[in-house]
Write a structure and sequence with these properties.
- The complex is a heterotrimer of chains A (197), B (192) and C (188).
- By secondary structure, chain A is mainly alpha-helical.
- Chain A contains eight helices and two strands.
- Chain A has helices spanning 3-8, 24-29, 34-58, 67-89, 91-97, 108-118, 123-153, 175-193; strands spanning 155-156, 159-160.
- The longest helix of chain A has 31 residues, at 123-153.
- Chain A starts with a helix and ends with a helix.
- In chain A, 57% of the residues are buried.
- The mean pLDDT of chain A is 90.
- Chain B has 192 residues and is mostly helical.
- Helix content of chain B is 73%, strand content 0%.
- Chain B has nine helices and no strands.
- Chain B is globular, with a radius of gyration of 18 Å.
- Chain B starts with a helix and ends in an 8-residue tail after the last helix.
- By secondary structure, chain C is of the alpha+beta class.
- In chain C, strands 1, 2, 3, 4, 5 and 6 form a six-stranded antiparallel beta sheet that branches.
- The radius of gyration of chain C is 22 Å and the shape is elongated.
- Classes of the chains: A mainly alpha (197), B mainly alpha (192), C alpha+beta (188).
- Chains in contact: A-B, A-C, B-C.
Chain lengths: 197, 192, 188
């Protein structure tokens, strides 16, 4: 696999949300608006890139039996750092995303990439893999957030569309809408990418 | 009354899976058979009940006095991971039959965000020890309820004629959406 | 790598040490910005709910209903121009709700600002000014003539947010608590 392929595979072929179905909790829980979805995606990407780098750096010195505990400590540390940075510099977003930020620790995407990629590849390739998958995740979350925000509150990235205001279907911002919107986006995604995959 | 309202709210109104989106992975992954869903639910209830007490003690007798609240995430995940391992080992020794029933679900629980989520939420909501325990157990019951209901629906769904593009996960998500809508009806149960 | 007790313990210990050092360093680094962000938030809330003022006293804390409220006194040219009260309600749909309420010296509500809440996005979060005009109906009203209770429930004069009676009730409850505490404070 070339470096370019490593970077771009997260967009469609191994898209964590639509193709691999990983990290469903934040996908459904934080995408009430485009901004929230994008922030969650970027926060996850931050941890993913750094954890891939860190794990790739130490992969040769970790004994097999304590591999998972060591990974969890590294990931939990990175999440704590992220929490501190977010609380200091973007407190409003930190408050909105709430419990889903510390829960990045148990996001299957992170541990999955650590196991499947970073523990076997070079530092540079691991960083590229983390950035690619992270970007794919961010794009999916932003897409889902935009769809839900548009249908639910008739606005895009926080900009209200005045003409459509009376037609906002609030259900799309609420819990059931998350499942339903994701379902239909997934159907369209499968249809559109059937050839590529 | 207060405990009663915690129970009703966490099982029905703020159902952990269908309203709060925690524990979606086992919800979509494990719940294809009613039997396995019950097993998973029981294992989660067991772990959540113990972890709520442990996490409560950790927060109020270790992290707070030492003023290191910012280590919450790292401390909680390590304690939960260790706890799950311990439960597995003890169960294997003490009660092989229970281990047979729950054993395969235990390793899955460490990465179940519902357990860590409940641990963080009970601190955030400033519950006392007994409230935390009540909250954890009823949340777990809500989790089991959602899983079992969903498994029942999916067993029926297998016999249905689903459009090709919707087969598998998409139709499961749609079903979950309708189930979540039904659960929204429960929000009338709480009156301020 | 093959596992032995010695390398397992030493590797985990080393990782834990490096991680602890990293967290400690970043904690020191972000400590002041976090404090500043919190102070800036309080300051923004104060200037939003109070009439123009020169300085604000250090808050006086009071224990109420198992939690505490903070009372700020705003002055301009040695005259009191208003009071701001950081109040809360436990009746929210998603748990605790914290708001700042500003009063003129005669008790008229000057303004409100949401500090933190965990209401449902799209429904209950309309208590926030940026999402709907709900909270603006309190501005300029005096609790003597504007009864703090939900109109729909026959308890007062507040118009609730459609489909979010619980969040509206909690907000009103918090404002009411602030007013009661202001009265108690003025009597002292």
């Amino acid at each position: 696999m070339t470096n370019f392929q490593i970077f771009t595979k997260g967009f469609v072929k191994e898209n964590p949300t639509f193709a691999l179905l990983l990290g469903m909790c934040p996908t459904l829980g934080t995408t009430t608006s485009s901004i929230n979805g994008m922030s969650m995606g970027l926060a996850t990407m931050f941890v993913l890139v750094l954890s891939n780098i860190a794990i790739s750096l130490v992969k040769n010195v970790i004994p097999d039996k304590v591999r998972i505990p060591a990974f969890i400590v590294i990931i939990a540390t990175l999440v704590t750092l992220l929490q501190l940075f977010m609380e200091a510099y973007v407190p409003a977003i930190y408050a909105t995303l709430g419990v889903f930020i510390p829960l990045i620790v148990v996001n299957c995407i992170i541990l999955g990439r650590a196991e499947a990629f970073a523990s076997k590849n070079s530092v540079f390739k691991s960083a590229l893999d983390g950035a690619g998958i992270g970007l794919g995740f961010t794009l999916s979350l932003t897409l889902l957030g935009t769809v839900r925000e548009f249908l639910g509150s008739a606005s895009v990235f926080g900009h209200k569309i005045e003409a459509l205001q009376p037609y906002g279907m609030i259900i799309f911002v609420l819990a059931p809408g998350a499942f339903i919107a994701l379902c239909y986006i997934m159907v369209l995604f499968n249809k559109a990418t059937a050839k590529i995959r | 009354m207060e405990y009663f309202s915690i129970i009703i709210v966490s099982i029905f109104v703020n159902n952990i899976v269908l309203a709060q989106f925690l524990g979606i992975c086992p919800f979509l992954g494990v719940s294809t058979k009613v039997g396995t869903s019950l097993g998973m639910g029981a294992a989660v209830t067991f772990v959540m009940a113990i972890s709520s007490v442990v996490v409560y003690l950790l927060q109020y007798y270790v992290l707070n006095p030492l003023n290191i609240g910012f280590l919450q995430t790292i401390a909680f995940i390590l304690v939960i991971a260790a706890l799950v391992q311990m439960v597995e080992i003890i169960l294997k020794k003490m009660s092989p039959s229970l281990y047979q029933a729950l054993g395969i679900f235990l390793p899955l629980i460490t990465t179940n965000c519902a357990v860590l989520g409940v641990a963080i939420l009970l601190v955030q909501k400033e519950y006392n020890l007994l409230q935390s325990f009540t909250f954890a157990v009823s949340t777990a019951v809500g989790f089991t309820l959602a899983l079992v209901l969903f498994a029942g629906l999916r067993e029926r769904l297998e016999l249905a004629d689903v459009p090709k593009a919707m087969k598998g996960i998409p139709v499961a998500l749609l079903t979950a959406g309708i189930l979540a809508m039904a659960f929204m009806g429960f929000s009338g149960l709480v009156k301020a | 790598m093959k596992s032995s007790l010695r390398n397992m313990v030493s590797v985990l210990l080393l990782i834990a040490l490096v991680c602890a050092a990293a967290i400690g360093w970043v904690y020191e680094l972000t400590k002041d910005p976090i404090e500043e962000a919190k102070a800036a938030k309080t300051k923004a809330a104060l200037s939003e709910v109070l009439p123009a003022f020169e300085s604000v006293s250090t808050p006086e804390e009071r224990a109420v209903d198992g939690d505490k409220i903070k009372i700020y006194k705003a002055t301009s040219k040695n005259a009191t121009v208003g009071y701001a009260i950081e109040t809360f309600s436990n009746k929210g749909f998603g748990g605790k709700m914290k708001i700042m309420v500003g009063f003129k010296p005669d008790g008229t509500i000057c303004g409100t600002s949401v500090i933190s809440h965990s209401e449902t996005p799209g429904l209950g979060d309309k208590i926030d000014k940026s999402k709907s005009d709900f909270s603006k109906q309190f501005d300029g009203k005096h609790p003597h003539t504007f009864r703090l209770g939900i109109k729909k429930n026959g308890e007062g004069d507040v118009d609730a947010i459609t489909a979010s009676t619980i969040s509206s009730t909690a907000f009103t409850d918090a404002v009411k608590r602030a007013y009661e505490q202001l009265q108690a404070y003025m009597e002292d």
